[in-house]
Amino acid sequence: MISVIVPCFNSEKTIERCLESIVNQTYSNIEILVIDDGSTDATGKIVKKYASRDERIKYFYKTNEGVSEARNLGLKESKGEYISFVDSDDVINFKMLEKLRQCFDNLSTKLSICSWTRKNFSSDPDSFTSKEPMTNIQALERILSDERIKGFLCNKLFKAEIINENSLKLDKNLHFMEDLLFCFSYITSLNEKDDIIFYNEELYQYILEKSSVTASGYSKKKITGKNSLEKILTLILMKENHCNSLYTSYYTYYLHFVISLLVRGEFENKIEVNDKMELLNIVKNAKINNISSRSVKLSVVMIKINFKGYYLFWKLLKKDKYK
After folding, report:
1. Which residue, 250, 266, 248, 249, is CA-closest to 303?
2. Which of 143, 164, 178, 230 has the maximal Cβ count within 10 Å?
3. What does the alpha-carbon distance between residue 3 and residue 13 come to, in Å, rounded to a whole number?
């Protein structure tokens, strides 16, 4: 059985289309755990209507604590052998769960991944789409470099056994890249002989809401992504015989993110003095030799010399690569 965890908050406009895409899956051996994180609109009423018609749907209401705690409750209540996450404003292709589950027919598979899209799905997934096996190091590298994979929870199918054995859960104090940290922790818990399968088909439709943290430019919540990346860097260093290239990739990504926060916070006039000084100190103390990107390395050097000059240069060129 697959446990599909759906956290939601005031999702009355989107929860119906989300549930429709899940209940109509070709893989029917599922339970759908809808975790209502304190909604004050009609979300609960809509979910209960669906639950009355489909016994696979289980509705849980909790006080508002954020999406991470909602997902953690879903993990706690789940009974399936596999775990899938779906956001309440997104939809999944009607064959997504079937295709991701099939990847586990190979007993060495411990994680399956599909591509995602912001466009509408084609009428039927291509049955001849390629499956690409990856090692854990390859997967961790491609999360950063391959737009089709990324560090999302929702385009992946996890094994519950591995989550439970390693006591994995979402950090409620992180509001950005907390999903990347979870995926990183899961993958690093695997053995070298375990397989990770990338199913190269767009089976998850990610709908970016303008009010979400991801869509915002600079925010206090988004700045917690820095903490997520710092935890990842610590996890890499804790590994015996850790991969230097992996550390360099994530360290470079970390500095790129910090610099993006700095210039966006300055541009939007939202950044507080203490946060600005903290981010500036990170860049000024950066280790140039651990940076793999020439553009990030140049940005670091310029900020070390004069942040105001770098900011004016960035503003002039309008090269905002913020993600």
Report:
1. 266
2. 178
3. 24
Q: Nearest to residue 5, comparing CAs of 91, 99, 94, 72?
A: 72
Task: Report the chain's C-alpha Rg in angstroms.
Answer: 20
For residue 269 the two structure tokens come to: 């006039």
Q: What is the pLDDT of residues 231-240, one digit of tens each?
A: 999 999 988 7
Check the CA dihedral 55-61-67-68 and report its sign: negative
Other C-beta atoms lying within 10 Å of the C-beta of residue 103 = 21
Q: Supply the pTM of this predicted model.
A: 0.93
Distance of alpha carbon 45 from alpha carbon 164, whole angstroms? 32
What is residue 81's DSSP assignment?
S
Cβ contacts of 270 within 8 Å, gap of 6 or more? 217, 218, 219
How many angstroms separate the CA atoms of 206 and 212, rounded? 12
161 pLDDT band, cuts 50/70/90, is: very high
**Strand 82-85 and strand 156-159: pairing?**
antiparallel
